[in-house]
Hints:
- The chain is of the alpha+beta class.
- It has a single domain, classed as Phenylalanyl-tRNA Synthetase, Chain B, domain 3 (3-Layer(bba) Sandwich).
- 27% of the residues lie in helices and 21% in strands.
- The protein is built from five helices and ten strands.
- The strands form three sheets. The chain has a four-stranded mixed beta sheet, with no helix packed on it. A four-stranded antiparallel beta sheet has the order 3-9-2-10, covered by helices on one side.
- The longest helix is centred in the C-terminal third of the chain and has 15 residues.
- The N and C termini lie close together (4 Å).
Amino acid sequence: MSLAVRVEEHPLLDAVLFETTFPRSLGEVSTPASWLSLLGGGAGAPLASSDDVRAAVRDLLRHGGFKPTGRSKPASEYLVRASAEGALGSINAAVDACNVVSLHSGLPISVVDLERAKAPLSIGLAPAGASYVFNASGQTIDVGGLLCLFDGEGPCANAVKDAQRTKTSAQTTRTLTVIWGTKALAGRASEAFEWYARLLVEVGAEVSR
């Protein structure tokens, strides 16, 4: 990957980071029907989540003192519930691919618009009291003790909720993705990436690690 991201030492983190360049702005890239089927929990996914995966992911997020429960549970767990309720719809090709892989792998995944993020980029634990707005309504999340992606303005993404200021839009053409893998699930993040990359190629995107 041409983009430099400094990753702090962590005993459990096994993250996979990659850059994606779409052939057109996301507002002009259609999501394949096969992806929409997978968002509904349809068959055909090469990975499947489990209680062991969910427990390992929570242990990863808990390591720095964060409590991944309730409204602060991993995003991958939210997707399972939303899919079961038929509430997981299409947003754009970048987010849809993310949600498909996260739903079936059980690993939380962040996607940020690289034109909105400001250098330098790094991954590490957020300090106590750190927070950011995570949706258009202005709601905030306290990310103290949680592994986060940081840009020049502070934390902007993590395994729970990504910041509103760096989220993708219809104008997005280039993204950074973080698969929040854990060493307790050796190789799973890499497997998720291989599938993820194959999906992105289907819409003409270029992927680089």
